[in-house]
Amino acid sequence: MSENDVVKRTFRALVESADRKFARVRDVPAYGRLPNQHYFHKVFKAYMRLWKYQQENRSKLVGAGLNRWEIGEIASRIGQLYFGQYMRTSEARFLIEAYVFYEAILSRNYFDGSAGSRGFGKKDIGVRFKELRFYARFLLVSLILNRTETVQLLAERFKSLVDNCKANFRDTNFKEWRLVVQEIARFMKVDTAFMNVRPLRYSTLFDSHPASLQYVTRFHAKRVLKFQDALLTSYHHNEVKFAELTLDTFRMLQCLEWEPSGSFYQKRPVEPKENGVFIEHSGASAASGVIDLNLAADMTDPSLPPNPRKAVIYRPSVTHLIAVMATICEELPLDSIMLVYLSASGKVDHSNTSQVYNSGGSQKSSKNKVPLQDQNKFQPESRINNKGESSGYYDQYLWFGPRGNGGLNNLYPGDIIPFTRRPLFLVLHGAERGETAALLLSPMRPAFKNPADADLTQNGSQFTFFLTAPLAAFSQLVGFSSSDTEAEVYSNAESLLSAAFSEWEVILCTTTSLDLVWAQVISDPFLRRLILRAVLYFFCPPEDSEQHLPVCLPLLPNSVSADSEVVRSAVQRLAKHLSVSDLFHLVET
């Protein structure tokens, strides 16, 4: 047996071994602690060994018939592994590594059968499917990283590839891939409507207000809860999405992460160990034209705390959603808080709704969990009988599935109550089992100047938009996009809003009437930012109607209520700056 044959057989054995290990972790749920976490280390180790072997024996493998797409497939698997680790841990370094591998595959043309290349043969259809999957995965990573130019380039090439495949493989149905092309085009149309809006991630430059830092630092409560876990899910008919990431969960996912300070790309050579952990490395030359595992762009900022873990669940059944909540709840430390974001249509009992507003309303859930609801959602507070027990928690619900299927797809407020025995699931005011809940709930109806903008399937949730990009949401509410105004005008509007948030933050952190529920979480920057942005939304709906008002329980202090002068004057300044004061019927003070 020749030396080349030995190298080829060893390579194939390494590929088969790595693929078997990959198959065991590919579909592991992206939530909860993993009893077989060590197996992920084995997979990383297997692919590192494989990658190193093909680099050291590249010429012999090529001589033995190794195709470039096979190298691309290995790199794509490694990128897929890194992305999977990001979804499980929310650690930015894994997302960045996935991007580096995918970008290298694209720039080195490992899948050389892309649109515009040499002719196709019938034997190439399997390779073309691998290339299609590569583009779809790279698009998702680029979307989350806000690499707009890369997304546009990939979308164009992806569409060309699908068209080329349809033309060359007429006996194969590419309907699903055409739908993916339509998905990304639709997603890009919505996501790029506010191109000059700053990142949704928490930026210490924009979102940290120096005037309030001393008060936040000295803020005391009976206990302070740590925000470590979040559950995000959305279920609407025909909602904007790409792959298994809907527009609303996409916005919330980014809103709950740190934005690296300074340049978006802080390049620093790093080396992945066998278990996927990184260490410093002196760097290496990329002149060989292959992806070097020792060279990676690291955008992470070591000065920032870790991102909270986020379980993003796509269109779950009610039983699956409850099971995920139970898993995360069971594993959450007692001093921690979990945020739960639920976006779905549903049935609202209007008689109960008035009781919510009479008892005080706004929106937010804290303690160990912050449930957020979207348009046409249930309101949490039902009737309280003379024994202090709640009733009516099964009169209203959210739909997590097709309508008309009985209660099988309905999520009721009462379904959440059992989790409040732990200090983390605090959803329903008046029906907790051990912890008082704090709630942020969206209004039953959004408010827009242009009725066409109210279509959730086209623009996502207005409430979610306010929580993640308040100025862009305000602009949408009054009927224009950021492109309608000069950059300087929009930048000044951002400054006005930032000044208002800074002022409100000082008030919240110095007031003596802040409910303990909020006091326990206000030291967390992510949750504090959500509270401040909710305050803006409490005031903004122009219509004087309960249906357009959000709900917050417990009540925030009167000093930051929609009727307070500090909130009214801030919105007045913003509306005047954007020449939309007439929409709010504001009185000059």
From TrEMBL:
Molecular functions per Gene Ontology: transcription corepressor activity
Composition-biased stretches (Polar residues): 373-389
Biased composition, class Low complexity, residue ranges: 358-369
Disordered, as annotated region: 353-389
Record-linked Pfam families: SCAI (PF12070)
UniProt record, GO biological process: DNA-templated transcription
Record PANTHER family: PROTEIN SCAI
Name of the protein: Protein SCAI
Organism expressing this protein natively: Malus domestica
